[in-house]
Amino acid sequence: MTTSDLCGHRLTPMEPFGIRLDAAMPGTPVGDLPVDRLRELAREHHLLLLRGFRGFDGAGELAEYSARWGELGMWPYGAVLELVEHDDPEDHIFDHRYVPLHWDSMYREQVAEFQVFHCVDAPGAQDGGRTTFTQTEAVLRQADPAHRRLWEQVTGRYRRAVTDYSGECVSPVVTTHPDGFPVIRYNEPVPPGEEFINHPELEFTGVGEERLPEFHRTLQAALHDPRHQYAHAWRTGDVVVADNYTLLHGREAFASRSPRHLQRVHVLGTPPMENTALVR
Ligand SMILES: [Fe+2]
């Protein structure tokens, strides 16, 4: 592992992908770091972890900071999603259970390039709740050629009917990043036996029904392979910027009522990427 530095802070590659910047002086404001350089790192490594810096005092400050990265993706609730367990969750986002792999903005007019996460409160070390990220360009690069040929034939259709998240989206499983390299867009079905609020309707076409079990099995094995998947254990104050064009992400279950509180903002690309998968 090689380390270098950025403005005197230690920069370390992560495994199996991503890059981490540790504050040389704990409490240095995140806002003091050069955003242009951070953006380059997030694009090159697909995930950037800023640890030991002083984060944000409230959602307003996080939104103001994220706007320095690019145009914000706006939602009916505003720019900042408060990811915290609700007493009586109306959607799986506000539950404590497992969330399968997916990409963000699949039902929006424009697809966010970056997710900026801020950890307001981390769950305890034994409480679970890691966010999982899979580097899909690497999955395809290292895939068994026969598996990849199968995945390339399949198209996913996803439909949800929930306030703020409703819509329909149709996307080939293997598609192209705006920079021209192949990536995977796939919303993983919930495993049998898992409880899940508002599961989308899923339909996969392009190959015969009899090949679909093999499709899901080989693709999920590759997406969860530790060579391509990173599970982030949150620490209070962490800031993570993730490349939503290339990665898929999900959540491990966590102990109900543990103090897990994340904030998330979407930053659009330059120019913003129109969501061609959306059924209008
Ligand atoms: Fe998500």
Relevant terms:
alpha+beta; Double-stranded beta-helix; nine-stranded mixed β-sheet; four-stranded antiparallel β-sheet; 18 strands; binds fe (ii) ion
How many helical stretches?
5
In CATH terms, the superfamily is: Clavaminate synthase-like
Q: Could you tell me the mean pLDDT?
A: 92
- Low-pLDDT runs of 5+ residues are none
Helix amount? 10-25%
Bound molecules: fe (ii) ion
* Rg from alpha-carbon coordinates: 18 Å
Q: Helices and strands, in N-to-C order? A: EEEHEHEEEEEHHEEEEEHEEEE
Termini, distance in Å? 47 Å
CATH topology: Double-stranded beta-helix
- Which class of secondary structure composition applies to the elements? alpha+beta
Strand content: 25-35%
**Oligomeric state, counting identical vs distinct chains:** single chain
> Biggest sheet, in brief?
9 strands, mixed
Based on CA inertia axes, which overall geometry fits? Answer: globular
Count of the separate structural domains: 1
Strand segment tally: 18
Q: What is the highest CATH level, the class?
A: Alpha Beta
Give the second-level CATH assignment, the architecture.
4-Layer Sandwich
